[in-house]
């Protein structure tokens, strides 16, 4: 880790776990686009949530002020992070809890396993949590003989189906009810064989299955939506009551929380409890909000732990152009409005974090120069719908563009500025120039001078001759073949505007303006 | 008022009629149009593809081409018939200038950021200039705009979300004589162009395009108007590839807002010699 000292501090360690794409986005997207059932489910689901969100957001006259407040609190928390985390640790410890610090996914998994071993249990119930998905905790425990049972209905469906979540909030958004019934019949122990695909019957089956688990489990594992530094309080926001069961029934409660989830004050919840439900489920108020502060003698879990997870967050924080991504409160509004996510679904992004936020957060956690996530920042048309929807105003399009810039620099062996002045040690081989490099390099030369562009435009009649008699070009070679796969190109004009203007301005050329739109 | 026209590279080279239409509109209102000869491109394609180094000279050229005329009083404002190019000039040029300084790029110019901001502040998108600065409220009365037929309108993302153009373009279209403006379902959904996104992620881009094409054709309008020829080239390319036609069998077109506003009774916008769009309420 200790590179030759250039007087610059080494970058904080990169994150690991389920935050890396396993194949380039365009390839994964191509496959997912071919799944008609997925497209239909996603289109229906995202549009429904989108409309609901718009309705409840438009009810609040101070919505924009709330977004500003949320953004300001997150900015404050990130700029005071070391101090707030220390304060949180003091308060949590003073109230009977134990704080653990995990540098990365592996360390967090080991800590959680150790804590479970101490209880002697081999079965734990889980509250839906992004942080534990991110570190691959379930798989890690499974390999070591500990079964972790997801208790959120959609997570349960995904887990029983040996599948991966495709959405932060509605992890089984890609499954319809018939598929869910089939999974239950196949994988749920003791399920009623006459189960239909009626939603109520499906829910009742899951409920019966989960009740048995809640009543027997000695250990629960959760994530956290918030950690209040002032009081050492943790908070989980959920809709089904399964979280409340997990957080109150077992003896031992282990929470894995990303360090960016800390908030300075209890009062800050006022803002986030308005922003979060409206942005995520389109509800005015969240159904089950559980807050706990250490251990309360004789009431609820007596053995209370929190694992504070870095896993690349400090690294993202060190990136002054990317750090805004850490403000994310995991509401999923950005993916619900994203036209790309709507068509590809979450699996195409590879990471635990899909959609627009995933396209910036995953590369920031793994280090922007990491090759495996390098296609994610391009998975956007930069339409900006995500920025408009984000309750904490993360400028996702701007960060996407910034990350594209970092990717191009890394690809050309230039390295991110933050890695030091030598520009070499970014761990990526210098790639050969691509067609895109050559095309954009040439375009830069041509488009940085009016004279040069004017000269090139003299060739328009030649290009025009390439078009068919119908005045369109239907097939182009190389990079441009991506364009003509679904789009024609019109025949170029015989003369550029620049040239027309010059003639019009020259004396004796007649009144060009009167010719109107003629070419 | 003296107005500098920023034609944009794609209009200059591929759609000169859109710049010609812009000139006509402004001259009809009695303003003087200047075309700064050094202009070429806003650099957005490079920027949004992450090629900041290659964008820098393009951005520098744009700032250089426009600032002298502002400084000398040769013109008061600049206008471009494009929401996304104007958004780039307003929001991205200063960013690239900062980037070059931060990176210690040897071509970095510490004055560029402020100069880019100065140019950006005085640069307007066409509907913005017409509505906010030139006071156009009735296209038929003030510009003589006339186009028989039915049209729908796609608000391109950068105009809508980065410039917050709101209903300016639609309000102008609604005051064109004989024109029936039909609402486009899911209008605020991106058409899928996205610059090099349309090539790098061609499959997703095409899937987005397919839905936009369906929505446009569902309106029955003879054309889809817009404020960005790049998006229009993408949408029009899809309509053309699929051979989409109106009920009367005419191809469904894309057309720039400037072309619609420039169309008059005496010199109406024509397609292949046909004067009217399909689906007209005339």
Automatic annotation (TrEMBL), chain B:
Top-level taxon of the source organism: Bacteria
MF-aspect GO terms: oxidoreductase activity
GO CC list: cytosol
Stretches assigned to the Cysteine-rich domain: 3-89, 151-235
Official protein name in the record: Fe-S osidoreductase
Species of provenance: Sinomonas humi
